[in-house]
Amino acid sequence: MNPGPAMNPGPDPGPDPDPGPAPDPGSAPDPGSAPGPTRTGRLHLPAGSTAHGPYALRIDPGQAGWEHSALRVLTLGPGENQPFESGDSEWVVLPLAGACSVRVDGQVIELQGRDDVFAGVTDFAYVPRGAHAQIASGAGGRFALAGAKCERRLPARYGPAPEVPVETRGSGNRARQVRNFAAAGAFDCDRLIAVEVVTPGGNWSSYPPHKHDEHRPGAESVLEEIYYYEIAGPHGLAYQRISPSRPGGAELLAEVGDGDAVLVPDGWHGPSIAQPGHDLYYLNVMAGPGAEREWKISFHPDHTEGYA
């Protein structure tokens, strides 16, 4: 994905960050709001299908049909900047490709960034709710804004790359690298949980299938989840599976490509399958209503071995 032409995209269009509930399906679309991915019941959102203004991808709670989780991908050309109102949500600005600065709460947070998502971990910036921010890039790039509706206002701050916990999860052809930059217990947020996963070509990840759609204290937490994908090399693809955990629940088997996203409102999700020869990256953004910010999951009863 190449940055656009060197021009300022102007003010952030539409209500920010949540344009509100989806209109009645029979009504005319609101040209001032972001496209509504679940107005037609879609879980797989192909690249470009939720583009809105300066954002190559924009998923806000009102469009997703849920309450908390949000994700945007901002593309800036050389010398461009984008104002950003955080509204009632907290956000992490995560460079996908390139470097940027984030001006918020009277400080400027300089992010060194990275060449691309396969180059390793990156530094990031936390933007609290109720803040006016500006994201600027001298050389241009792409930047993810992972967000969650929240109650507490925490301080704006810098997340250094060397402090990001990195783990190898699974083994053999189920091995993948997990970068826990905003995992619960790794970086303080009010509700937001976000991690990056890199799966070698030919491997399975998000496996065994698991879910987080019931409140069972100490065992499972309720979390809305977004997957955003990038794939190494031309003509790469991957597959994503969601199977129902309840009658009428979410179900999906989709071929996903570079820049696609998948919504997981409920259900057993996994595996994510990387094409041989094409490493798979995905960014997971999660948030939910629980009093505790925690990632508690249940494995599918046919796959109780866990992350073996």
- Please state the CA-atom Rg, rounded to the nearest Å: 18 Å
- The low-confidence parts are 1-40
Q: How many domains, in number, for the residues?
A: 1
CATH architecture: Sandwich
Q: CATH homologous superfamily? A: Jelly Rolls
Q: Output the helix-strand order.
A: EEHEEEEEEEEEEEEEEEEEEEE
Number of strands: 22
Main β-sheet description = 9 strands, antiparallel
Q: What is the approximate shape?
A: globular
Number of helices: 1
| Proportion in β-strands | 35-45%
The CATH C-level class name: Mainly Beta
Mean residue pLDDT: 89
The structural class is mainly beta
Can you tell me about this structure?
This protein has 308 residues and is mainly beta. It has a single domain, classed as Jelly Rolls (Sandwich). It has 1 helix and 22 strands. Strands 2, 3, 4, 5, 6, 7, 8, 9 and 10 form a 9-stranded antiparallel β-sheet that branches. Strands 1-19-16-21-13-12-11 form a 7-stranded antiparallel β-sheet, with no helix packed on it. Strand 5 and strand 6 form a beta hairpin. The longest helix has 4 residues, at 61-64. It is globular. 47% of the residues are buried. Residues 1-40 have low confidence and may be disordered.
Strand-helix topology:
Layout: E1 44-45, E2 55-59, H1 61-64, E3 69-76, E4 81-85, E5 89-104, E6 107-114, E7 124-127, E8 132-136, E9 141-149, E10 157-159, E11 166-169, E12 176-182, E13 193-199, E14 204-205, E15 210-211, E16 224-231, E17 238-243, E18 252-256, E19 261-264, E20 268-274, E21 280-287, E22 298-299
Antiparallel strand pairs: 1-19, 2-3, 3-9, 4-8, 5-6, 5-7, 5-8, 5-9, 7-10, 11-12, 12-13, 13-21, 14-20, 15-22, 16-19, 16-21, 17-18, 17-20
